[in-house]
């Protein structure tokens, strides 16, 4: 009887929630429908060239954080379950972003805008359906940022938990290690004492050092991964002006012409194509190939740093372009687009190898694409079903503006004339505006540091995926901070208008 009596109250609460948050509910419903369609279109999941090293072992060339998830889910439901869980991660991130912006005082429309890209972006959907670590990586980033930003009575606990989760991202993808910079900067600015910055650094390093220690005990290698010889060679070789570069005769052949770079497939080809000079140039006695490539790359960085920086900058702004056209200078964007067939790439016996992998991991039967569903997803993606570059640019500008406004006015909690600190994030007053600005700085700096660090080695649309989470959140927080400061300024002007007439009246009376 109690359950029956409670049912109307639960139904009423659900109706009120839907009524109050209907824009986000619509977005969430659309995101769920797209994910069901992706799950039905490609069975049991999409596999990529690098999927094998996560399914059967990378030999130490990649961190094994994602493999832990695969080992947990494979025995239960195979690759289809892995894809379903990754789709759940996408929905969970959207809900978390929406709740975070609301909790920090943002309007519902801004919170919905922050969550929309991760729900509707087709490139996000494609990687959720693919057996690759990227979705787990961005989910951990979103969780770490939320823990750092979520208001609580004991801010130190949030700093510790958020930094710990952000540090753990490096066990999924090595590039996550650069997130220590925004975590420590935020902890230093958002708190009145530098002790919290030290806490953030220590908690960030804990999972990294723990993983590296475990790797040393098992393999004898103290590190996150061994990525093969000189991953920086591709960027250095593509950027170099060979005619002006002073290198030993044995290294000159490592410097390709622009035409040769394009023919090989850009930076990715310089790194991985067997015909690349990095693979074919003879190695002098007394050196390994990695040492040879390192020497060449260091020579380019020392002699032509501006060319390398300009090359990275040109790639970094690709994210903000209006369209996403194929470009021979970068890894083919087709790899991250839905196809009307089950996609493989130009490697011998790829489909046969993929099929064996699927069968080994609890997914019997052939890999296949379901035509109608695949065609719908491809048309959606190619006809604008992704976050446009100008939207990313606007979000970045809003995040930077919110952070700079906080730096000009000071961040963190402030003491008023009455004595105690003003409200924290999501509250009212100058302290709330300052901490919102610190949040803008955290998310914006995290996005810039992570994306530029990835681009420094090689641009790939896959490596831009975290922008779907971080840049819209930065923009929403920037808008929320601007709104808070406008209200604060309006309230201050109102108080001045009330005070001036009273003072004039007092003079008249005297």
Features:
mainly alpha; 67% helix; 510 residues; globular
Strand composition percent: under 5%
- The computed structural class is mainly alpha
Tell me the number of strands: 2
The total count of helices amounts to 22
Order of H and E elements: HHEHHHHHHHHHHHHHHHHEHHHH
Taking the alpha carbons of the first and last residues, their distance comes to 74 Å
How would you describe this structure to a colleague?
With 510 residues, this protein is mainly α. The protein folds into two domains: 23-225 and 355-495, no CATH class; 241-303, no CATH class. Helix content is 67%, strand content 1%. Strands 1-2 form a two-stranded antiparallel ribbon. The longest helix is centred in the last third of the chain and has 43 residues, at 467-509. Residues 411-430 and 500-510 have low confidence and may be disordered.
Blueprint (SSEs and pairs):
Layout: H1 2-20, H2 22-41, E1 42-43, H3 51-55, H4 65-103, H5 108-120, H6 122-128, H7 134-149, H8 155-168, H9 180-190, H10 195-219, H11 233-239, H12 249-252, H13 258-264, H14 266-272, H15 277-280, H16 289-303, H17 305-316, H18 350-360, E2 368-369, H19 371-382, H20 389-409, H21 430-457, H22 467-509
Antiparallel strand pairs: 1-2
Helix pairs in contact: 2-4, 2-5, 2-19, 4-5, 4-7, 4-22, 5-22, 7-8, 8-9, 8-10, 9-10, 9-21, 11-14, 11-16, 11-17, 13-14, 17-21, 20-21, 20-22, 21-22
Question: In brief, what are we looking at here?
Answer:
The chain has 510 residues and is mainly alpha-helical. The protein contains 22 helices and two strands.
